[in-house]
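Quick one:
INPUT:
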């Protein structure tokens, strides 16, 4: 079966016709014949590199791993330092984590929601969202996501008695049922530290949902909270602890352990100094001896150069005796006697 954009018999005309080499519809007698086809720049053509139908949109994650992530995000939402680092304005919030009455679950008007947020001093975080509203940079403006804004507070409720209608029109404010915890709302972008406002019923249900350090969960089968990586959770005790110093590197720590260490150290320094002096004396002596030898050498060379050169008397060489030339003697052959 032909795909979308390929439902025609088109073939390129090739070169030599002063037209583009794009495939063109066959035939004649209609406007469609001779028009370009198949290409992403053609009317009725297919898109370039179309998305595949077999793309893996979803990823399987272990249930225990997902629960671990949600529990970690909930725990991080109760640490003011992490929440502040995310940019939430919680300086005037009366307590943290912020747990409010269940009456807000009955609100159904935006006016009531705004008054509530002003009373608990969380309106500054909403104003931050208003100021951050802007147009997106890039092609997303053409793809139904023109505007972007920052995140405001997240309200977690136990029962919806109209609370969604009250808060849904305030920008940046998200709502979530405690029975359907969404990790993308608790930790947007994978970064923990969301400013969460809990209703009393939702906050009390957390123990039943995820259990405590001593009891397992009642609503999730065989689930226990993960043990913390920190053996001692008292941060003040860790930060203000007595620092252990290495006595081999720290002199004061060594003197506390061994007061005589100062004397031994001083003696070692003095002996090292004496050794240096001796080595310097030896080196000076060797230098003096070397300089004396060099000086003596120079004196000898100078004395040799100062002596006048005595010319030796030339001895006359005796003339060579000329040997007489050997005369050729003719040898007569004597005939042999018969």
């Amino acid at each position: 079966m032909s795909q979308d954009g390929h439902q025609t018999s088109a073939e390129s005309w090739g070169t030599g016709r002063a037209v583009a080499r794009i495939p063109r519809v066959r035939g004649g007698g209609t406007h469609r014949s001779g028009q370009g086809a198949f290409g992403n720049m053609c009317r009725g053509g297919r898109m370039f590199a179309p998305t595949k139908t077999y793309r893996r949109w979803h990823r399987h994650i272990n249930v225990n791993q997902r629960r671990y992530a949600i529990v970690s995000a909930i725990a991080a939402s109760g640490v003011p330092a992490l929440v502040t680092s995310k940019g939430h304005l919680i300086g005037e919030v009366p307590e943290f984590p912020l747990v409010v009455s269940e009456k807000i679950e009955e609100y159904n008007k935006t006016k009531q929601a705004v008054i509530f947020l002003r009373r608990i001093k969380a309106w500054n975080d909403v104003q931050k969202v208003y100021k951050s509203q802007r147009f997106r940079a890039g092609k997303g403006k053409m793809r139904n996501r023109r505007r972007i804004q920052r995140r405001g507070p997240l309200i977690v409720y136990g029962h919806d008695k109209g609370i969604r209608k009250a808060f849904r029109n305030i920008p940046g404010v998200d709502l979530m049922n405690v029975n359907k915890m969404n990790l993308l709302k608790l930790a947007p972008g994978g970064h923990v530290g969301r400013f969460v406002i809990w209703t009393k019923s939702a906050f009390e249900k957390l123990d039943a949902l995820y259990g405590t350090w001593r009891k397992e969960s009642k609503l999730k089968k065989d689930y226990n909270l993960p043990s913390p990586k920190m053996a001692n959770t008292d941060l003040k005790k860790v930060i203000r602890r007595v620092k252990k110093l290495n006595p081999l590197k720290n002199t004061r720590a060594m003197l506390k352990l061994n007061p005589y260490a100062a004397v031994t150290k001083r003696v070692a320094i003095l002996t090292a100094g004496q050794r240096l002096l001796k080595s310097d004396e030896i080196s000076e002596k060797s230098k003096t001896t070397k300089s004396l030898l060099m000086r003596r050498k120079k004196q000898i060379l100078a004395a040799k150069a100062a002596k006048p050169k005595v010319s030796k008397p030339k001895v006359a060489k005796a003339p060579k005796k000329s040997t007489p030339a050997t005369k050729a003697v003719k040898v007569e052959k004597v005939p042999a006697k018969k």
